Amino acid sequence: MFYYLVRGLVKFVLLFLGLKFEGIHNLPKKGAVIIVANHVSAWDPLLVAVGSPRPVHFMAKAELYQNQILARLLNALNAFPVKRGQADRNAIRKALKLLESGKVLGIFPEGTRKKEVGMEAAQAGAAMLALKSGAQLIPAACLGTKGRFPWGWGRSTLKIRYGKPLNLTAYRQEKTTSASLDQISQEIIREINKLLY
Question: Rounded to whole angstroms, how far apart are CA atoms 3 and 49?
């Protein structure tokens, strides 16, 4: 309930600031989904979430959970902690459990915010979760958030653009290897960059 209330309020504000949606029809109406997007601003998760008709769950860096009030707020907004710089088994189990129950997971495959708008490299987490869970991978591009906030005004158009699901059929029919995860990760980067430009 709290999630929908906050999402509705944020969506109203972002629409007032000129937010535009593209490719929402590419988002599956049911089943496990992983939305992979670029990340240049703390506001990018909000764009991904308000554009999706279904609730989106995000991983948030564990440091944010050191504050109890912020931790409760993040939990209420469908976020869960992840320890960066290591293979966080608890976060992986939580993500797989959500996907196995048909939920939507939002991931920023670069692992952190970047100064550059374009993407160059992706960690293998999104690819691994997609293969293990059978979830569909949806590339997304957050446009116009860099340097626009916190005040909300800027010349660039504020936009969230969703691409078509990545075809992972060939990968699902083979044994998962570090090479196949790397190939999927590179494909994620290519598809997101196409949406960015």
Answer: 10
